[in-house]
Amino acid sequence: MTGSAKDQILARIRAANQAGADPDAAYAELTRNYLRAHHDAGTHDITGLFAERAADYRAIVERVPGVELAAAIARVLAARSASVPGPFVIPDGLPAGWLAGLPGEITLARDEPPLPAAELDRMSGVVTGCAVAIAETGTIILDHGPGAPGQGRRALTLVPDFHLVVVREDQVAADLADAFARLAPARPHTLISGPSATSDIELIRVEGVHGPRNLHILLTPDLPTS
C-alpha cells in the first residue's frame, strides 16, 4: 500500500471517529470510473454466454422456441421417467401450459401441503422456473416465498436428484451486479451453478452432494404464461 493510500484510509477512520462527523460524505464523493460490467448486453451475446458457462458446469442446456417448450418439457420428463420412475414435484404457480401434452405415464405431485424430505427424495425430479440467470457465471437464481410463482420452496430444488428449470432469455443478466439489482434483497434465494458437486476429498469430483445430481436447462426466447 502506498503512503498516500494509507494516509487516506487513516484520515477516513479519524473522520468517522469524530463526534458529529459524516463518515459517508468522503466515501460518496469518491470517483467511480471503474469498469462496472465485463459484458455489455448491447455488445455481447449474454444469452449465448450463459448457455456456454452453464454447460461448462455439466448442466444440459437446450435452446427451444416458446411454442415448443411444452413438447420439450414432455420429452425431457419422459426420458427421465424411463430411467428413474416416479412422480415429478411441481411448485405452486407453475404455468399449466408448460405441462400440456405430458405422456400418460408421467405423474405429477403438488407440494401442498409441503411434502416431507423423505417423500421429495423419492421423486423422479422437479420442474421449476427461475427469477434470474447470470451469464458470466452460468448461474440460476431461484426466488422463494409468496409472490414467486413456479419456483417453490428451497427444499424442492435441493432434495430431488433431477431439476428441470425453464429460463427465459430476458431473465439472463450479464453479471452478479446486474442480477442482484433485479432481486428483492429481503427474499430468500438459491443460487445454482450446474449440478451439485464437490471436490473436497482428494480433489475427486462427487456430484449430488448438496443438491440435484442432474440439472437440465431449457432456455427460451419467449415464454407462455398460461
Write down how many β-strands occur, each being a DSSP E stretch of 2 or more residues.
Answer: 12
Mean pLDDT score, rounded? 86
CATH class category name of the largest domain: Alpha Beta
What strand order characterises the main sheet? 1-12-7-4-2-3
Q: Main sheet, how many strands, which sense, barrel?
A: 6 strands, parallel
Coarse morphology: elongated
Helix residue percentage: 10-25%
For the record, the count of structural domains works out to 2
The helix tally amounts to 6
- What is the gyration radius calculated from CA atoms? 22 Å
- Specify the CATH architecture of the largest domain: 3-Layer(aba) Sandwich
- The CATH homologous superfamily of the largest domain is called NagB/RpiA/CoA transferase-like
Which stretches are poorly predicted, pLDDT < 50 over at least 5 residues? Answer: none
